[in-house]
What does this fold into?
Amino acid sequence: MYNFDLIAQRRNTDSYKWDVGPCELPMWVADMDFMVAPLITESIIKRANIKAYGYSNVPDSFYEAYRAFFLKRHNLSLKVEWMIFSTGVVPSISSIVRSTTSLGDNVLILSPVYNIFYNSIRNNHRNILVSDLVYKDYKYEIDWSDLELKMKDPKTTLMIFSNPHNPCGNIWTCDELQRLVDMAIKYNVIIISDEIHCDITTPGVSYNPMFNVCGGEKNVIMLASASKCYNLAGLHASIAVVRDKDLRYKVWRGINTDECGENNFFCANAHETALNDCISWLDEMNQYVYNNKKYLEEYLKNNLPCLKLIHSDALYLSWIDIKDLNMDSDEFTIFLRKKTGLYISSGKAYGDNGNGFVRINLATSLSNVKDACNRLKVAIDLLK
It folds into this structure.
């Protein structure tokens, strides 16, 4: 048993998340407050005790840990030779945009979606092409007619796909994934499947890997990392998995040209330890986050019915409908932080159709979740 009530104290540690005011409660950016599994800490200390931190190779055991993990956890057979090391999923996305598309090409996304997808397209001078998810009865679905219309545009050469979907938490079904892959093959579109959140799910529920559907051998690039699930984001390591030899070379060449293919001294060892030896920690963390979600859901239902929690079986992030407030999302989150110190994310960051929503990070102690709920109530009472 691990004690997830006891969180890391990160104030005054140059934390991107916690470098806030003394009375503020940051529950925005997607990293955890939980202490990592003790075995990971032990492996890092052991590595540090070498006491010389020079250049390091990525060992074969790093790739083998990913292969074994996905086989055991998701019955997904990957080969080590399909894997490419990268310093992170986001650097991989930006590199792949550059290496597989041309200036002026369309890169397709489903909105609302992780805000950095937009940056990776815009900063590389490609066109952002958005297919809005359909929001109905507090659920999101793909608008298949609109998606096909935009995918068959000759200028559309790449799609960046979030699996499971950040921020609304959809676990895409195998039928949905198959339909997506079939459409992409039909129109010769490459799919980047960002699967970094894949193992943050409701206990007893599993996500569906893109590579577990037929036809993705030629045009799917899977991106994965232990960083999100095991709270290792600051160690900078991930894999790109590409089954097609020619596409794999193009991705490998781009990642190395962009100088994001070299590991740091600690990352490979920490990732191996997490994937090989810390499954019990992962399972208990998922149970704890699920309990936090249930607390938030019940609190909103009983105390703040004007805020509607969107049900999801993935992510430690919750997506909340605030449309009953008749307030712009940016306006609400600024008001919330100013009046109560609660710092959460505006839905507008994830696309125009994210307005009317907010995202809150529940990978923290239950006491912080309770505190956040109380601060939400203070804000809503002030608005009344």
Observations:
- The first helix runs from residue 38 to 48.
- The chain has two domains: 25-36+279-383, 43-277.
- Residues 43-277 form a domain with the Aspartate Aminotransferase; domain 2 fold (CATH 3.40.640.10).
